[in-house]
Amino acid sequence: FFWIGERLGSMARISALGWRFFAIVALGCVHGLEQAGRGSVVKPGASLGEWFKETARREALLAERRATATNSTKQLAARTNYACENCLATYEDSTPVTLRVMFLTNKDTVTNVKAQEAAAAAGLGHPCGACCDDPVLAVPECFVAENWQGGWIGEPVITLLTSLGPTNLVALTPANISDEVYTVFASEGVTRSTNGYTTCVLDVALGNVDLCVGSFWETAPRRDRVLFTSPLDINVFRLVTRATIEKGFGVSNLIDIFAPFSWTVWWCVCGMFLFTALCMWVVNHEPTEDFPEEFLYPHPMGLVKGVWVSAMGYFAGNQFVVDRWSTRLIVLGFSFFLYISGASYTANLASFMVLKAGATTGIGSFNDIVRQNKKLCTPPEIQGMVTSSTTGIESQLVIKNSVDVLLDNMHRGECDAAVIGKLEFAKFVTAESASYTICTTEGDFNYLGGYFCGSKDSTLELVELSKCVCGHSTTIPDTEECPSDCHQPSTKYCDVVAVPDDSFDGSLNFAFPVQAWVEPYVSAWIVKMKQNGQIGVAYETEFLNKNPAKCPLTSPQGQGASSTTDAGASSLGIESMAGTFFFSGILMFMGICLHLVQTIMERREAGKVLSLGAKAGEAGGDASVSTAVGIGGGVGENGV
Question: Angle between the 154-164 and 519-531 helix axes, to the nearest 10 degrees?
Fold first, then answer.
């Protein structure tokens, strides 16, 4: 541009004017490209001159930081104890040590209160809060290490760094991410919109940063590039889904008494009634109280009477009147069926009624997601853990680039369940205190994803769950009670409950990406502070105490629901009752077999009696006939 300006200026004999014009055009284009790449905007009303001053100030500051951050290649003194005091002050030759630490802000985790106050005083309203991640809006307080002592991670880390005592402690933020990251890793899809956690890891890999401080997950791709410190904590992941509470009376309540058994089991119960009636009808040949003579086999009404008697035995506990061993075996089998099924029904009915009184869900495990063809939202970092724990779940997964938007997607119906960590559960569900951004423009390639939108025309929505907003968009601080006539803080995730599943054991370490030369020192101090309880105290005071439960008592969370299942999942299926039907049927079948044996033996005995009677009749047949004739003749004569 300057060369063209000079030539045109010479031709038109207005060299100075041409130089100025094309210089302004050139710098304007550079400014536009930078803003498009960074996704930032100039403050409304700012003139071009003000922008030049701000850009010059920022570039000078970044240049100064990077120059100061150039580490010496000299060796540190050998140590036998890495959890040492002031041991990073100098190298062996007394050259001062410079430690470059990048802080990634996150509410209740790593915070900079002074930067937030300075940004608010300057009127820098922006979704990033203190805006320390933005090179245009970052305030000087963002680059003072001592200011980052807020949060359950920030507090112990500042103590740790102060103890190590580096001579030059350079505080950086994602605003200082080197341009090298975007050029070297462009082929891997790294852009200006890539989240700060990923880019900080890459800057450590390039040697531009010594330590990243934030709620980093130690994942395999990150571990392949850089070292990580010893973990501060472990983020245990859990399956969560939405729960409902039974409200009022409905038609469905009329059939709740059948819920303890599945409908397949109830059909088998009816079949058992019919089978028992058939057995009793067949084996009873002598009149009894249950089977009078008019109901004996083969009269068909005997089968109807048998069904009635077996049903009364099931529901009222009536006993059969038995008079032979075959009948006793059948009654024994039926009694076994009555005892097991009755006890199972009673126990499960009590459990079911308790569940109906509380919160219930339609998903009780990862396997339920596969069986019911549900959708599961999960972050990419734990996708392998989920697929390895449950066969056939791959097609049910909905992968989102941010754990912050998983519950939002579930609430919008994009998925039926989600997998989140214990910290996310505490912030989003229990305390409803999280803030996050989500792209809400349909058609955008990152639709319902976090951090950014793929198009500048798309809408990146800021969601602040804990904010109390009154008229004219006035926000009431979290420390004050929200007036009744204002928009109350969100409770939309109070219907989310955790679903324990022993088949899934997913977790990731909270640890810091670090350069090899400083890793032993930082790791040793982390282990020491964990054993001393300092990190545990910081977690309790800076995270748990600042995120109390806010869900109303009428919500699933307010009722303390954590492991619930729906009516279908609590019903006993045929697989649970199969043994009862099997052994009862065996006993009844044995009774039928015994009856057949007894019938055959009785018929043989009856045949023998008939045979003996026939032989006796033949032996005395002639005498009987003569006597009969003589008697008959006498009678006839007297009669005449």
Answer: 120
